[in-house]
Structure prediction request, 110 residues.
Amino acid sequence: MPSVEVTDFSLFIGVRLATLFTADRVVAVAFDPVEKGSLAEKAGLRSGDVLVAVDGRDIRGMKPADFARLFKRNPDRQGFLDWKFTVDRFGAAERPGQPQRLVVEVRVRQ
Prediction:
């Protein structure tokens, strides 16, 4: 039976992730909501964007523990945390019924 988990990154980048899991695999992840004026919104994320990959690693079918590790990292030498999110965005007028694939980079000072 699938379950949904909500991970709150609003203190860091202004977004929550709604993750759909089966017993041992990630099925789908959506950004919902993306807070107005947040780092996530400024980087280009929108509520409803579907996460496909983090830093080039496809998340679909990933084990939940491996998925969680994608978000745990140490800051770089300048004190920044960086993520590169590949997302599918649905509802683009120029491609009805097909997602628009985007890469959004989010950088936050720790």
Remarks:
- The mean pLDDT is 85.
- DSSP finds two helices and seven strands in the chain.
- Helices lie at 39-43, 64-69.
- The longest strand covers residues 80-89.
